[in-house]
Fold this sequence. Notes:
It is globular and about 30 Å long. It is about 40% helix and about 15% strand. The chain contains 5 helices and 5 strands. It is α/β, with parallel strands linked by helices and about 110 residues long. α2 (about 35-40) links the parallel β2 (about 25-30) and β3 (about 45). It has one domain (about 5-105): HprK N-terminal domain-like (Udp-n-acetylmuramoylalanyl-d-glutamate--2,6- Diaminopimelate Ligase, Chain: A, domain 1). The longest helix is centred in the C-terminal third of the chain and has 10 residues, at about 75-85. The mean pLDDT is about 95.
Amino acid sequence: MIVKDLIESHAFKLMAGTDIDREIKNVYSCDLLSWVMAKGKFDTAWITVQTHSNILAVASLLDFACIIIPEGIEIDKDTIEKANAESVVILSTQLETFEIFKILYKEGVQ
Length: 110
């Protein structure tokens, strides 16, 4: 699945970044940054409720396809600006984490 597909077909909103043609090969959800750094993989769609700029460091370090913020949680303005500067894609959705997993699973992401 491509990041762009989430935006075009599944009501996800692009909040930051431009590289929406990246493939999502897996999905991970966790809010403990050190745990994500230990378990995350290349081309991951990371679901987190964290919205501070430290999430960008983790996503950049592991070269994630995108960060997904669920449940309409507001994203810090500074985080959005920094994500744009660092080319980290952040998506927002009103969906809960489980619903996001269901969409990605149906699209073949495991």
